[in-house]
Write a structure and sequence with these properties.
The complex is a heterodimer. Chain A is an all-beta fold. In chain A, the strands form two sheets. In chain A, strands 2, 4, 5, 6, 9, 10 and 11 form a seven-stranded mixed beta sheet that branches. In chain A, strands 1-3-8-7 form a four-stranded antiparallel beta sheet, with no helix packed on it. Chain B is an all-beta fold. In chain B, strands 2, 4, 5, 9, 10 and 11 form a six-stranded mixed beta sheet that branches. A five-stranded antiparallel beta sheet of chain B has the order 1-3-8-7-6, with no helix packed on it. In chain B, a hairpin with a 5-residue loop joins β4 and β5. Chain B starts with a strand and ends with a strand. The chains are: A mainly beta, B mainly beta. The interface between A and B is medium-sized, with 24 and 22 residues.
Chain lengths: 116, 112
């Protein structure tokens, strides 16, 4: 398994500003992922962040809006740029780690973002 | 396309069994997972099952997979108030845990 922390745990931001969310894992992992969970909804994958290469974005998400950094095997950041109230969500990072015979995704506690 | 459906809400009495159901459409799923999300928290991995299995038991949890009907269920025995949460099933296609597709989530409420 893996222990994952995220900062900040929550934030309230003004429209038009940007917020960078940090994700730290306690072991080296190849693959990290960023998800968005809109209020009352399920999780949607934003992008896959691999160390040493550009992030791979899912349909509907673009690098200009959600730039991602992955400087090493234990850390990643997601920036939510030029925020609007529609960006109010929980943002979760996850990592792919061994667990009981299969690589599985373990999730951080999430960052609860409210945009006014 | 990939679509994972769950019923939205389930209410049970403490001590009873809970059964949370999930249907998926992609027959090439390799692993199927159950995650638990408590209020204000992230997702906790509960268990997973490989697609060539039809049952997996882990303490109070039993996972049943009917691959023909593309139906997955999670049974929680002796449900406790601490089990109240939202439960998500998720599937992956291909090897390992890449690109999870999550279900809509089932909110389980355990009543005294």
């Amino acid at each position: 398994s893996a222990v994952i922390s995220q900062k900040p745990s929550r934030d309230i931001c003004q429209r038009g500003t940007s917020l960078t969310i940090q994700c730290q894992v306690d072991s080296q992992v190849t693959m990290m992922f960023w998800y968005r969970q809109q209020p009352g909804q399920s999780l949607t994958l934003i992008a896959t962040a691999n160390q040493g290469s550009e992030a791979t974005y899912e349909s509907g998400f673009v690098i200009d809006k959600f730039p991602i950094s992955r400087p090493n095997l234990t850390f990643s950041t997601l920036t939510v740029s030029n925020m609007s109230p529609e960006d109010s969500s929980i943002y979760l990072c996850s990592v792919l780690a061994p667990g009981g015979g299969a690589d599985t995704q373990y999730f951080g506690p999430g960052t609860r973002l409210t945009v006014l | 396309g990939e679509d994972v459906e769950q019923s939205l809400f389930l209410s049970v009495r403490e001590g009873d069994s809970s059964v949370i159901n999930c249907t998926y459409t992609d027959s090439s799923s390799t692993y199927l997972y159950w995650y638990k999300q408590e209020p204000g928290a992230g997702l906790q991995l509960l268990t997973y099952i490989f697609s060539n299995m039809d049952m997996k038991q882990d303490q109070r949890l039993t996972v049943l997979l009917n691959k023909k009907d593309k139906h997955l269920s999670l049974r929680i025995a002796d449900t406790q108030t601490g089990d109240s949460a939202i439960y998500f099933c998720a599937e992956t296609i291909g090897g390992g845990g890449n690109k999870l597709t999550f279900g809509t989530g089932t909110q389980l409420k355990v009543e005294l």
